[in-house]
Amino acid sequence: MKITVIGASGNVGSCAAFNIAARRLADEMVLIDTPRPDWVTLHALDINTAVTGQDMLVRTGDYADMVDSDIVIMAAGSAKTFLSRMAVLPENLPLIREIGGNVKQLCPGALVIMATNPVDPLNYAMYLASGLDRRQLIGYSYNDSIRFRMRLAQALGVPSSRVEGSVIGEHGDSQVLLFSSARLDGKPVSFTRDMKRKMLQQVPDGQKVLGELRETTGRTAAWTTAVGLAAVCRAIVQDTGEMFPCSVVLDGEYGCNNISMSVPTILGKSGVKKILEWQLASDERKLLNQSIEVLKPAMKYVEELLH
Length: 307
What we know:
Elements: E1 2-6, H1 11-22, E2 28-32, H2 37-50, E3 57-60, E4 71-74, H3 89-106, E5 111-114, H4 119-130, E6 137-140, H5 142-156, E7 163-168, E8 176-184, E9 187-188, H6 193-217, H7 222-237, E10 243-251, E11 257-268, E12 271-275, H8 282-306
Parallel strand pairs: 1-2, 1-4, 2-3, 4-5, 5-6
Antiparallel strand pairs: 6-10, 7-8, 8-9, 10-11, 11-12
Helix pairs in contact: 1-2, 1-7, 3-4, 4-8, 5-6
């Protein structure tokens, strides 16, 4: 198993590389970051030492070293910090176009996990630029569901390990918290209006605080993303068939075409094995429709620049 991490000198890329290596999810890992070669060399040396005894090779490389990768994690992007993820779309799109061409040439059988923001339009851009099957492209949006489950557990007064819950739609401000998906010990949960209202406020408020701290520190929520990326990779490598909310290019699912957004998926060695079309509550469907409308202009922008 060969995993390549592009943007491996940054917070998300380096943290993801370490978490994946610590779980020995690959035989070989290639760390690429052409703007900061010294940083990525240091990370490779350090991670190699950290996982000594696991019979795993971690090395640096350039785009040519992507050849025959099984998984490519895209974590490179603009170093600028904005409160809005969409604000960096014009800056990050050319990079996706370039890397998409490399993927098409060097590792057309790879699964590509998009962790660069804005995830939804850039996952769609990778689909257009690489020519890969849509089920090979996984936009990382799992953090939203992790945070939702944390808030659910707090509201119910139980450990988060007992709680399930998913977030779909945009990986951004219009995301949809699916209270209908909430489970406690595998059983549906009933919520009062007040509980829903508080959580609908708490989750965006928490993300706003993260956004403000990202603006002042220049650091994103790399630890959460790294742990989530490792979990996604584990589901792929071990073919677990686990469900993850991921941004995927839709072809009729949820009434959408030519758009990438977060939906519940079953992941495995082939990538997106199945897209689950859940029955949504009427208010959830309304919010999802609103989220789709938010995403449409970004998808059109991508199409205009890549076609």
